[in-house]
């Protein structure tokens, strides 16, 4: 009995000492700011913060868990928009609101975590450093914590900074794909043969061999594109603005053959772990290409391919694979909208 009394006294003294140290030496809340810069225009950056459906696709706070369930409430962007989230696996949940908006300059968020009635306040300011570069500053004010929980303030700023680092990497990938798509659409000139340098790409897809009959080939392309898209979007959880246009890679002149072998896939920002052996990664190395944009029936692409091959032969260039990049997703009974790229070299 005496042992338990002594133990109780020790516990009381330890808790008292801890509480006193927390009360006198640790602030009840934290205020800090973090600055980052990103190589994209302020209007494109702001829209990713202002629309909560976009925001949750790249912010690591939400993307780091596959078990999180998010509900979105109207309006979906700007002042008054909000979400609620529940992560059953990690036993957390909460609500987030946009309370103030100044277009391309300022946003003010409130984040209520778990059952805490006091929100974390996050003001985000955007400044145009140049037409293609934006400075982002987060001003964070955390809620007051009880004396026994104040120790959490020792790692709050570090945890927030780590989340921002990971989020900015995700945002860069999202904006990179979005800007690339916008620029590509704006630059299209159909049926004009051009020269273009292709940067390295990592493509996730499948290898296929099939009949080269008129209808059978395109139906096969559509079917296998859908397989890849469903795997990337559903199994891997990627959103449309996280990956590039679908691409089909094949021999330049195999349109003459009875059987066609091709690889069809979707560009991703980097290689990731996959568990389905039907899919594999292929790296497209930097190349110089002869390109032509084509819109029409899938069978009609042959004439455009022949133009590219004739140009290569005329210029005494050797050529490799041809890539068919679908600007619009391939669907049955519809014309295709694509960029045909023939890699050439001396």
TrEMBL record:
Domain Activator of Hsp90 ATPase homologue 1/2-like C-terminal: 39-175
Pfam families (UniProt xref): AHSA1
Listed Gene3D superfamilies: 3.30.530.20
Family according to the record: Belongs to the AHA1 family.
Name of this protein: SRPBCC family protein
Biological source species: Chryseobacterium tagetis
